[in-house]
Design a protein that fits this description.
alpha/beta; 38% helix; oxidoreductase; Precorrin-6A reductase; six-stranded parallel sheet; 18% strand; EC 1.3.1.54; 11 helices; 11 strands; precorrin-6A reductase activity
């Protein structure tokens, strides 16, 4: 989603100092791709990630070393790690003075996205864009749609059998209310110390913590479902980029029931390719 008022303001006023700087809120595949795209165009970019794991992935992709050759501090990419609230985001934007802010956080990070949007309203010169991956759409195999994690837990409370949970570590505490959750739940989380520690704090141990980096193939999903004799899969709609199709194919092949947590209501957004087009247009306009 592009802030057209900001776009119009920039054309009328000629922009503000630091107009070829961008702030990118990442933590997703789209975020990593956009970081590479921005630096490839020569745009100085501050990339914000919440965790050490997010920073490590960017650095593993070789995105921390790009330069523009214009001075001693010539890095094109500046990675900032840490969870930010709206006030902290406003402070960051005041410091960096970017011409563009891109929200490429997870489709389910509704609170974070809203904080980013609100922080940008204090800076009328900023062009704000929300990159939102497409939903997966219709599927051959039926899914049980629930509005949130709490509803998923309530539905599962009346069922028996093991459960593969792929919703992320933040939602795991909700599943602790299920009978015998330590035996029934197999939690797939990011391979970070923070994620594993949180799992253990909640009572998950050993084989019940699957710390792996996705997205995963159909074969890997199927192997996990069969290995742990799961009857249910709980997931979010991460779209094609997040491996949603592979999850559903695996659940069908394994004969398990899939609980799909609906995306939160959002203010909308545009695809990765459309974001790239707007970045290029913005960069050409600012030259």
């Amino acid at each position: 989603m592009r802030d057209d008022k900001a776009w119009k303001h920039r054309k009328e006023t000629g922009g503000q100092p630091g107009q070829r700087k961008a702030v990118l809120f990442a933590g997703t595949t789209e975020g990593r791709l956009l970081a590479a795209y921005l630096t490839g165009l020569g745009c100085r970019t501050v990339v914000c990630v919440a965790t050490e794991y997010g920073r490590d992935v960017l650095e593993q992709d070789g995105l921390a070393g790009g330069t523009d050759g214009k001075g001693p501090d010539d890095r094109l990419l500046d990675i900032r790690q840490g969870r930010l609230d709206q006030k902290s985001m406003e402070g960051l934007l005041e410091e960096v003075r970017p011409g563009m802010v891109i929200d490429a956080t997870h489709p389910y990070a509704a609170e974070v996205s809203e904080n980013i949007r609100r922080a940008c309203t204090a800076f009328p010169h900023i062009l704000f864009i929300r990159c939102l991956r497409r939903e997966s759409g219709a599927w051959d195999n039926p899914v049980i749609r629930v509005p949130d994690v709490r509803a998923a837990v309530q539905w599962l409370a009346g069922q028996e059998g093991n459960i593969l949970v792929t919703t992320g570590v933040k939602e795991l505490s909700a599943f602790c209310s299920l009978p015998d959750y330590r035996k029934r739940i197999y939690a797939r989380v990011l391979p970070s110390v923070e994620s594993v520690d949180m799992c253990r704090t909640l009572g998950y141990e050993g084989r019940h913590i699957i710390a792996m980096q996705g997205p995963f193939s159909m074969e890997m999903n199927l192997a996990l479902l069969r290995e742990f004799k799961c009857r249910f899969l709980v997931t979010k709609d991460g779209g094609k980029t997040g491996g949603m199709e592979e999850k559903l194919e695996a659940s069908r092949a394994a004969g398990v029931r899939t609980l799909l947590i609906d995306r939160p209501k959002s203010a909308g957004g545009i695809s990765l390719e459309d974001v790239k087009k707007q970045i290029k247009e913005w960069m050409e306009h600012e030259r």
